[in-house]
Design a protein that fits this description.
Elements (H helix, E strand, L loop, with lengths): L1 H14 L6 E3 L11 H18 L3 E3 H9 L3 H5 L10 H16 L16 H8 L4 E5 L3 H12 L5 E5 L7 H8 L9 E4 L10 H15 L8 E4 L11 H16 L15 H17 L16
Parallel strand pairs: 1-2, 3-4, 3-5, 5-6
């Protein structure tokens, strides 16, 4: 049935004069419910139809398997969950499609997130409205002051996301309730001592913490995630490795990063104020009259 559908799609596209490009699906984490062996059967059909119909194929499956060849951990860092790529994974697919069309290599390595990370919050603050925040310590105590420095008199309602003596599994469980909380800003700051059963377990669950904290379907609230090094830039050894993994996961969700100017001995408070000022300035720029909503594309 899948093969027949692909053939029909090719025929209908050609009938209206369109050129056709087939794509294999991205590879996935191998699970009992979604085994790679089954997926490979569908991948083979795409390749067969491509050859029979003389249609070019973008081999996204092969591209993701080449990432897996570098190690399962590396593959995990391109995935948002068991089957969906994160933004880094989607960039890989975009590179593969563009390279196939153009016949030359294309890189999106320098393509970052939208400059306005918190359009919903900035819009509320500029309008003098209440901002409802869920934040992990110590940022539950730091954010109201930083926001009021940039928006004097701002009204901030703060709720604390518990972190003391919690594993990454407990953060994962708590994050499932975030979407029902009617918030304007979720500030994720998983502490360095939140461990998992393994590095892969930590990455899987941390990715889900971000997934549950982001407003995907409708941009009703903003999400910011920061690595442990924002609070403690002197991490070493395994803690530094974990921090680098967290930074990569944050960037891979196109959330951007808040970073301290360590050379200038900048405090966490000062870094937050500087970041919020930057967000307000970008939002208020003449080229950005309207809020930038997550998921929309366009030229800046």
């Amino acid at each position: 049935e899948y093969r027949a559908n692909l053939n029909s799609i090719v025929d209908q596209c050609r009938a209206v004069g369109a050129e056709v490009l087939l794509c294999t699906p991205n590879s996935v984490r191998d699970t009992e419910e979604l085994p790679i062996a089954k997926l490979k059967e569908y991948v083979a059909v795409v390749r067969d139809v491509s050859e029979a119909e003389r249609v070019p194929v973008v081999d996204c499956f092969g591209s993701f398997e080449s990432i897996r060849d570098q190690g399962e951990l590396e593959f995990d860092l391109f995935m948002s969950d068991e089957i969906h790529p994160n933004m880094d994974g989607h960039k890989r697919i975009a590179e593969d499609v563009a390279s196939t069309i153009l016949g030359t290599s294309v890189s999106l390595d320098d393509t970052g997130p939208l400059p306005v990370a918190i359009p919903h919050v900035v819009e509320l603050l500029n309008g003098g409205e209440l901002v409802r925040v869920l934040a992990m310590p110590p940022y539950d105590a730091l954010l109201p002051s930083a926001i009021n420095t940039v928006w004097p008199g701002a009204e901030v309602s703060m709720e604390t996301w518990p972190v003391i003596d919690r594993s990454i599994a407990s953060f994962y469980t708590y994050s499932k309730d975030v979407r029902a909380m009617e918030l304007d800003l979720v500030f994720v700051a998983v502490p360095i001592d939140a461990r998992g059963e393994s590095t892969r377990d930590f990455i899987h669950r941390y990715s889900w913490v971000l997934n549950f904290s982001i407003s995907y379907e409708k941009p009703e609230w903003d999400c910011v995630a920061v690595p442990p090094s924002l609070e403690n830039p002197e991490l070493v050894g395994l803690d530094r490795d974990r921090d680098e993994q967290v930074q990569r996961l944050i960037r891979a969700q196109d959330l951007g990063l808040i970073e301290r100017d360590v050379q200038a001995n900048e405090s966490v408070d000062a870094a937050l104020v500087r970041w919020f000022r930057g967000q307000r300035a970008i939002y208020s720029d003449g080229n950005l009259h309207q809020p930038l909503k997550r998921g929309l594309t366009g030229s800046l």
